């Protein structure tokens, strides 16, 4: 009887340690992925974490919102500790709404609804999140409800390369030559050489402001070639 009981206890402990080892490996990989994401980029963590985070907002300030649900379990504490270290926030607990719009999974035996599917964001990007809620649509391929998050994203304009065109340089040189009647030929050649060297310059700007930059550069070229004008 003692041998049989010893075998049973060993067989019960082995899956427990195996489950804990898989959980540690999962959070190690998740921590590596979060650290590899640049801080200025948007970070989204979505999925079934099989964790109940509870509603203790005072202890987990910044991680949990004021609208949590249910009691916390061991997986929830592990998730909350990870979010506290990485400065992440559980967006499901931020917005005030009914419990039927928060819960995502029903226990098959007890029939209780729980919140175990989360959308996690960085705390500094939490102000851009508009709403996180569960969709009560029928999903035949899963026993979990879908979670939808509405977020405001500000896309910065891409800076494009604008090559200086030759006909613009020619028109710029012609404009200067018509207004300089008493200038020496050597000075005109100097200005023309400067304009030729200017062909390989790239301007990192948008189209509305390019004319202003052209005007400033042209004024600098003319002052270096002909000198400053006496009539102001």
Automatic annotation (TrEMBL):
InterPro entries: Endo/exonu/phosph_ase_sf, Swc5/CFDP1/2. It comes from the Eukaryota. This is Endonuclease/exonuclease/phosphatase domain-containing protein.
């Amino acid at each position: 009887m003692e041998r049989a009981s010893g075998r049973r206890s060993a067989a019960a402990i082995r899956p427990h340690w195996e489950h804990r080892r898989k959980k540690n490996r999962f959070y190690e990989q998740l921590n590596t992925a979060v650290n590899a994401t640049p801080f200025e980029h948007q970070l989204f963590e979505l999925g079934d974490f099989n964790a109940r985070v509870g509603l203790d907002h005072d202890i987990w300030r910044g991680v949990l919102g004021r609208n949590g649900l249910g009691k916390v379990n061991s997986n929830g504490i592990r998730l909350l500790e990870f979010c506290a270290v990485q400065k992440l926030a559980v967006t499901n607990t931020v917005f005030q709404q009914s419990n039927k719009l928060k819960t995502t999974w029903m226990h098959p035996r007890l029939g209780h609804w729980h919140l175990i599917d989360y959308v996690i964001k960085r705390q500094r990007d939490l102000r851009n999140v508009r709403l996180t809620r569960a969709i009560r649509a029928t999903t035949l391929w899963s026993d979990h409800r879908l979670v939808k998050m509405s977020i405001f994203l500000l896309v910065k304009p891409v800076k494009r390369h604008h090559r200086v065109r030759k006909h613009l340089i020619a028109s710029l040189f012609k404009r200067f030559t018509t207004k300089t009647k008493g200038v020496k030929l050597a000075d005109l050649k100097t200005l023309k050489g400067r304009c030729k060297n200017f062909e390989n310059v790239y301007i990192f700007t948008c189209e509305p402001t390019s004319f202003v930059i052209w005007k400033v550069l042209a004024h600098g070229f003319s002052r270096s070639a002909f000198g400053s004008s006496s009539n102001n």
